[in-house]
Write a structure and sequence with these properties.
Layout: H1 37-52, H2 60-75, H3 82-98, H4 104-126, H5 130-143, H6 148-161, H7 166-181, H8 192-205, H9 210-223, H10 228-240, H11 244-257, H12 262-274, H13 278-291, H14 296-318, H15 322-326, H16 328-352, H17 360-373, H18 377-387
Helix pairs in contact: 1-2, 2-3, 2-4, 3-4, 3-5, 4-5, 5-6, 5-7, 6-7, 7-8, 8-9, 8-10, 9-10, 10-11, 11-12, 12-13, 13-14, 14-16, 14-17, 16-17, 17-18
Length: 390
Amino acid sequence: MKKTVLLCLFLLAGFCLQSGFAQDAPIPRLKVYSGDVAKAEKDKAASDADIADAKKSTKANTWVTRGDIYGGIAADAKLSSIDAFQIAADAYAKANEIDGGINKNALKGMGELYVAAMQIGTNAYNANDAQSASFAFAAAQKLNPTDSVAFLYGAQIAGDLKDKNPAIAAIYENSLLGLLSSNFKGDGKIDRATIYSLLASYYVNDIKDYTKAESIVNKGLVEKPGNSTLTSILAEIYLRNDNLDQAINQLKKSIDADPQNPENYYNVGALYDKADKEFEALEYYEKCLSIKANHQGALYNTGAIYNNKALAVKKEYDQMDLKESKSEAGQTKLNEAKELWNKALGYFEKLYADKELADKKAVLKALRNVYAGLGRSEDVDKVKKELGEE
């Protein structure tokens, strides 16, 4: 009988984007176009000519003006584009470079452009345009890398789209890295340990870079020693590298750190189960169930172990000749199989009674097989009917 999923990892709480980050406040530094394409094109042409001029291109004000123009385009609801954000940001950066990093107008423009990027991103998200929102928040991150809000929003939205677009996957990764490198301490719903976990999970599950994943987990454990989620991810990394013993030892550290968490015991039990160490697996499943009596994974896997044991004993009985099967030894063997099936039945029936059962069909099939082993034909027929097999 097939067991349930090995580890309960990476089930992490998602982000929550706060609506209305920035309302339509006036932006005094940037040009205002109100959707006027002709005016925008005229100003762009003038700016292109200025930066092509050998003398004007050396003046900080030329680049500030260019930043104001493209920043205004970027901030305009009808004209906005990610390219405009990037050109504006580059122009302000050039002005700062010319003036030694202290051009007040450029710094102010970058600040206003950041607000515009956040505003565009929030509006796009609320309009169900998650892709545009992701790129807008990515632009905001570059404009103000010390503010964690753009990284937080970028991570949330890009996380939902990362499987569909490599560019957005990069935004997701950079957003999480930005949160870790910023002064982000947590917002009450998500903390730094969760950020480390999300990033490590991305490296493990999406790009299969276990070296990067292990590095991130270890950094997280320096900040949050004993964190059970990070410890579990590290165990998953060891497991994927075929180091089962190291994975088990790592997960046992999770138990030491959080002895009242049933998932820690379940995960260790599942690893022992994978290694065909049934005695140890049952020990940890029972510990899990002593904390959470209705833990579906532990109930199912425990029932599966007893069912599989019963099948093995019944196979030995079936291989006996007629005389041996009728003997005391044969009947003892048959009774042993039935005792094991009865043990399995208790776990499966408890699962079946759970109103929040995740996989009812799998449990019904398990019940059908156990009832059959026990010779309870009426119960077998009832289960078959519920499964639609009759």
